[in-house]
Specification:
6 strands; Alpha-Beta Plaits; 4 helices; two-stranded antiparallel ribbon; 95 residues; alpha+beta; single chain; globular
Length: 95
């Protein structure tokens, strides 16, 4: 989950949220071991909400580790990193 800066890349927060969503969804079907990817944009805009959430499922921990260093994923990090003010993650296994 990310909270975005009010302005980054010359765009407002809503524009950057949409761009982040678009860029992440382009990874669908392109990352070995990734089973699911969803990107949601917040509509509540409360003080406690984040702006963007990424939900993804991988076949195992190794696939997640490989995703982290995948060149297509790595290429997105500078854009996302410049746009965010706060990041929260939870990596977990079901069962």
């Amino acid at each position: 989950m990310w909270r975005l800066k009010d302005v980054a890349h010359g765009n407002d927060k809503q524009t950057n949220a949409a761009l982040i969503r678009e860029k992440l969804l382009k990874l669908d079907g392109r990352i070995p071991g990734m089973m699911t990817i969803e990107v949601g944009l917040d509509f509540s805009r409360t003080d406690s909400s984040c702006d963007v959430i990424l939900y993804s499922e991988f076949i195992d921990r190794n696939a997640l580790a490989q995703y982290q260093i995948n060149p297509e994923h790595e290429a997105l990090k500078p854009f996302i990193g410049e746009a965010i003010q706060e990041r929260r993650i939870v990596d977990y296994e079901v069962g």
